[in-house]
Amino acid sequence: MAQPLSKTKEDDGTPYTRPTAIEAAIDVALGQDLETLCRRAAIRNSKLPDYLPSECLVHLVRHALRTSDEKAFNALFTALLERCAANVNKKVDPSIPNAARVRRDIRREFAALFAIDGTPDDKHQLDFFEVRFNLGFMRLRQTHVTRALAELEQSVAIPDEAGESIERECDDEVLARIADLNRGTDLEHRVFRQQVFRAITALPEHERKAIILVHYYGFQIASDNPAKVTAATLCNVTGRTIQNWLTSGLATLSTLREQA
Question: Could you tell me the pTM of the whole model?
C-alpha cells in the first residue's frame, strides 16, 4: 500500500492526495518484481497499457530509498532520470543561450530532491510529483528557463500569428496550464485541445503574448524592482496593461469551456 503524502495545500492545509488511478497503479507496482518494473519504466508512450506513470515511478524510487533497496533504487532512478532528460531535451528550446547548461541544471535539481527527501531539510518536496508529475516538472523546468533568460537579459521568443513557433508553444502543457486556471479537465480531450489551440492563435497578438509569458514561461506580471525581467518589461507596457490583456484573453478562452 502506498505511503500517504504529508505535504499540505496552502489554501486549506489539507494533505495532497494522489489521483485514484495513481494509487491503484502504485499498489499494483509494489507487488511486481524489479525486472517487470524496469521494463515498464522504459516505456515512454503513456497510452500503452503497461506504461508506468511517472507519479508511480517517483513513489517507487522513494520507496526503494526508504527500504534501503539499493538495487531497485539504482535501476528505477536511472529510468526516471532518463524520462526527465528526454523531457528537457524536447521542451527546453535550443535557441535559449546556454540551453545545454539549463537542461543539465534542471536534471541536477530534480535529482537533488531525492538526496534530501525525508530529511529535516526537506520532508515532502517530492509529494506533488506523486500527484501531478508533469505539472511539477514543468514548473521546475520553467523556473530554470526563466532564470536563464533573466540572467542573460534575453527576451523570450513570442509566437507569430501562425506557423511553427505557435505550434511549439501551444503544446499540451500550455493548454493544461490554462485549463488549471478554470479548474477544468476538459482540456484532456483532443477535440477540446484543438478548439483551444485555434482560440489561442486567434487571440490578438498582445493577449497571446501575455498569456504565454505569464502562464507558460512563468514571468511575473510586473515588479517594483526595475531591474527584474517581467511580462510588463518584455512587452514595454505597465503591469496593469498586462493584467488587462490576461483578463481579456482568458475570458475568451473560458467561453470554450462553458460551451464544451
Answer: 0.60
